[in-house]
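MOLECULE: protein
FOLLOWS: sequence and fold
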Amino acid sequence: MKTILVVDDEGKIRDVVVSYLKKEGFQAVEAATGSEALQALQRESVDLVILDLMLPDMDGEQVCQTIRKMNSVPILMLTAKVSENNRIKGLSMGADDYLTKPFDPREVVARVRAILRRTDDGHLLADRLSFNDGHLDIDSLKHTVFCHGEPVNLTPNEYKLLLALAKYPQRHFTREELVDKVLGYAFDGDMRTIDQHVKNLRHKIEPDPKNPQYIVTVYGLGYRFAGGTT
């Protein structure tokens, strides 16, 4: 049974979301503040975080950044900020998806299921792939990535994106194909979301993000993985 951490300072919203999650077979942990959420993550085994951006003690973006320094648990942001810049900012800080308020709690549950399916599906045919004399290693059994032997803290979507590309070196993928593989067929947001995930991933795994040697842009099409296997 998956455990979902619901972070929102409005008790009524937490009650509704938790109620729907429990009806669908999830366990739920509640937090009304950012500090409560971070404490809950330290004592509970959480599979996904539903995080409101507007919290009384710290904003949700700050909480998101702090969580990302701790682990790669998937994060679904709840926000009343509907501008594209705010959504992209949330994704750039490590959120995996976002939902604007007001929302249908049934859609929250659907998004939770979709995110968990995506993160559970990330696997390779080989147990471990290594590129460029061990500079980059992907361990599919542990769902971990290493650069020069040091672990890299990737979000679930970044991990899925890297897997999707690394499985097929030199194959060109369109943004639409990568959206389907990483964000799911039901994703109805901007295709440029993939560009933001690529940018984040490059900063984490590339020796020089401005001159990438792994995730290469294919102009007019999308991206390909150029790293040679060792």
In short: The longest strand covers residues 3-7. The helical segments are 11-23, 34-43, 60-70, 84-92, 105-120, 156-166, 175-182, 193-205.
